[in-house]
Amino acid sequence: MADSHRISVHRALGGGAAADILLWKKWSGGVVLLVASTILWFLFEIAGYNLLSFVCNVLLLLVVILFFWAKSASLLNRPLPPLPDLEFPEESILKVADGMRVWVNRTLSVAREISVGGNLKLFLQVALGLWVISYVGSFFNFLTLVYIGVVLSLSLPMLYDKYQDQIDDKLIVAHKFFQAQYKTLDDNILRKIPLPVKKEKKTQ
C-alpha cells in the first residue's frame, strides 16, 4: 500500500537523460559528471589554476590538434575531423529563455508581494533563506559551493528514491515541529506588529 503513495523521483526530475544521471540509472554519465567536477574543483581550488588561463589553454590545444589533423588529412588522403554543426538550435535557445523568464517573473512577483503587499510571512521566509545562504557562503567560496551542489545532486535524489518512506516520515515530523514553532511566533510576536492599512480612494 505504501508504494501507491510514493512519488516518482525520476518523473519529478523531468524523466529524461538528466534524471537518469542524477538517479545513477546511467552509471557512465554520473561517473563522468562526478569525475569532471572533481577534477575542475581540484584544479581551480586546490592547485590554484586560473580559470581564464585554463580555458584559453584548452581551446588552444583543441585548435592546434584540429588544425594539424585537417592538414595531415589533406596530405595523407585521410578523413577530416568529424566535427558536428557548431551552432545552437533555435528551439534550445527559446526553451532556455522561456525558463529564465519564468524564474525572473517569479522573483519579481515575490519582490512585489513583499514590498507592495506587505506579506510578512513571505518576507521572513526570504530573509531567513538569504541569511542561511550568506552564512553558508561565508565558509566556502563560490566554486566550492557549486562542487558541493553537484555532489549533493548526485547523492540526495538517489538516497530519497531508495529510502523515500523513511525520509517522508522524518520530514512530516519536522514539518509539524516547525509549523508549531511558527504558530507560536506568529501568535506571540508577528500578530502584534502593526501593519500599514491600505486606504481606498473615495470615488465621488
From TrEMBL:
InterPro entries: Reticulon, Reticulon-like. One of its GO terms (cellular component) is endoplasmic reticulum membrane. One of its GO terms (biological process) is response to bacterium. The keyword Transmembrane helix applies. It comes from the Eukaryota. Keywords: Endoplasmic reticulum, Membrane, Transmembrane, Transmembrane helix. The keyword Endoplasmic reticulum applies. Residues 18-204 form the Reticulon domain. It is a multi-pass membrane protein. This is Reticulon-like protein. It comes from Escallonia herrerae.
